[in-house]
Amino acid sequence: MSATIEMPVVKDTFNADGHAHEAQPIYLDYSATTPVDPRVAAKMIPYITEHFGNPASRSHPYGWTAEKAVENAREEVAKLVGADPREIVWTSGATESNNLAIKGAANFYSGKGKHIITVATEHKAVIDPIRELERQGFEATFLQPEPNGLLDLVKFKAAIRPDTVLASVMFVNNEIGVIQDITAIGNICRENGIIFHVDAAQATGKVDIDLEILPVDLMSFCAHKTYGPKGIGALYVRRKPRIRIEAQMHGGGHERGMRSGTLATHQIVGMGEAFRIAREEMHEENKRITHLRDKLLHGLETMEEVYVNGDLEHRVPHNLNISFNYVEGESLIMAVKGIAVSSGSACTSASLEPSYVLRALGRSDELAHSSIRFSIGRFTTEEDVDYTIELMRSKIDKLRDLSPLWEMFKDGIDLSKVQWASH
Amino acid sequence: MAYSDKVLDHYENPRNVGTLDKNDPNVGTGMVGAPACGDVMKLMIKVNDAGIIEDAKFKTYGCGSAIASSSLVTEWLKGKTVDEAYAIKNSAIAEELALPPVKIHCSVLAEDAIKAAVADIKAKQLAKASA
After folding, report:
1. CA distances from A396 to A229, A295, A372, A414 (A)
2. Residue in chain A lying closest to B66 (CA)
3. How far apart are CA A286 and CA A4, in angstroms?
4. What is the ipTM of this complex?
5. Rounded (5°) CA angle B93-B99-B104
6. Does any CB of chain A come closer than 8 Å to the CB of residue B37?
7. Active-site residue, B63 included
8. N or C: at which end does chain A have fewer Cβ atoms within 10 angstroms?
9. Which residues from chain A sit within 8 angstroms of residue B68, using beta carbons?
10. C-alpha distances in angstroms, A384 versus A21, A28, A252, A295, A390?
11. Model pLDDT for residues A43-61, shown as the tens digit of each residue
12. What is the pTM of this model?
């Protein structure tokens, strides 16, 4: 089982100048990216070295071997999500898949209408293509989720207009891990003749996906959140009923004209192997990860003024997003150097704005600034979780001793009533 | 983000963390920033009758640079007159800690905290004199 596979981090390695690397922190940022499973890496290597052929070369065995590997991988990807291999189009990753799905469908069907519905908590790779379409004359509705991060179906229905052509809702949120009710949203789309796109970058290997049953027309995937390599993804494009998209990349007519460009055989092989492993191991793996997540949650929620962001029930076990009130996120990340996590604090982003996802849940700026996303996965151990709990508890105590807000809270002062000298 | 050694040192071992008695007529308090902006600094100074700052304490909610900036100024303030303290510029703080451009606002906040604490002690002294 997966528990016997070790985290593929090379320890005790040396830089070119002979100095040892600093000890690596424990990796708890699986929602940012996952390490490539060693089994995946092993399967990829021959397709960089010996089987280097272009899968589009039809005239010799180099090409045939590569093509066979690509089609094998396509089958593995299709199997994980209950699709027909002919419905899988290779892309460079979920950002490209989202762009191709959203712009491609909106452009193809623009004669039917020019209104798009999405959610304020979508990934930027969905929000920004829709913003771009707005500049081209489309109109978009960005629905606010409920405070638990889930979409209210009544509000979704109410947003539908006669000219609504496309809806895009992510399966699993990257910051808070909540799982939207894709079946219900898809059924509403079907009833109203709306094309439905789902960004499933964070969902593969975590939730069951069966596109034979799911009323979804377009679905985006990537490999690197599911123990595959970066730089490879796929877009599911439904055949029955057939969904058409306008190509965004023009060239040699690869992927039935939907996405030109020489296929990256080794990357594709990696994605196929990663998705095969996910299909075979996800149920066992999720049990183990749920146990670890529960342990982490119980270890942290017994502190004062700790808030879990996003619904706990409709959520993948891999994600735990917590706000530690009165402690600023970036200073907390500095304090917990022994673990690699991310924060919704403004200071950790280039924009100096706190997480727009947490703000959309109605969280205050303070709580957004104080948030930490722990995301765990295949190589996280029981000891990692124990260490994290102990580290977090001691550092939060230390930072709260430093915090004037904590002091005021302890003195019973209502911080919302304080007149702050803003800057 | 890479921090300078001085920021890391102040962050790991902050100097003069704590609180003075805010009701003491010789103690001035400056609190600047806002939780919504991600940083709040509280600086307290104790000034003797000769106008010299005898003690300084701080508490800060904010990033590492904000904590380091406020820790640093508590060191600088001790032994200075309130007028000398008032003259401390954010640029000196930023230079001492080698703050990157994106963190300059932390040094501005520390300067603001000094000015607010000095204004508070001056107002208290004025009230005492007119009492």
Report:
1. 35, 18, 12, 21
2. A331
3. 15
4. 0.92
5. 75
6. yes
7. no
8. N
9. none
10. 20, 9, 48, 11, 10
11. 999 999 999 999 999 999 9
12. 0.90
